[in-house]
Amino acid sequence: xxxxxxxxxxxxxxxxxxxxxxxxxxxxxxxxxxxxxxxxxxxxxxxxxxxxxxxxxxxxxxxxxxxxxxxxxxxxxxxxxxxxxxxxxxxxxxxxxxxxxxxxxxxxxxxxxxxxxxxxxxxxxxxxxxxxxxxxxxxxxxxxxxxxxxxxxxxxxxxxxxxxxxxxxxxxxxxxxxxxx
Length: 181
Known about the structure:
Blueprint: H1 9-23, H2 30-37, H3 42-47, H4 51-72, H5 82-94, H6 96-103, H7 113-118, H8 123-133, H9 139-158, H10 166-180
Helix pairs in contact: 1-2, 1-6, 4-6, 5-6, 5-9, 5-10, 8-9, 9-10
């Protein structure tokens, strides 16, 4: 009778995600992951052919985590790009290591920044459509201006240089939308 496997792919991926949240992507090594999953490195390499394969799955899990975070955020205004910007900035502040892994990594596994933000929910596409419906003549160009602003603010939160309240952030994003429009 074959021995039952006690460590599953899900166990390893969940342990890797916890390690990512706590210590960052560069600390997701086979040894640290084995310790976190309470196993040897053998189950990791039985399930994944190498750490690159695991890292790509971890990247997808992190992107899904961001999309779920976005979906759970309360929309405070109908002004396009404000909800997206507010959620993105909050995510950077609350989930620094995951934000860095997804949005500041040079390895994106074939995805553009637009793909990462738009995700499976199509949130950027919806915001662009909303701007168009509200009379914006160049909603894609407006998005690019807003995105540079939003991403900059999110990066400032990583270093502790962003200290606006959520209310102030929403107002700043609204003001930026109208100024760029």
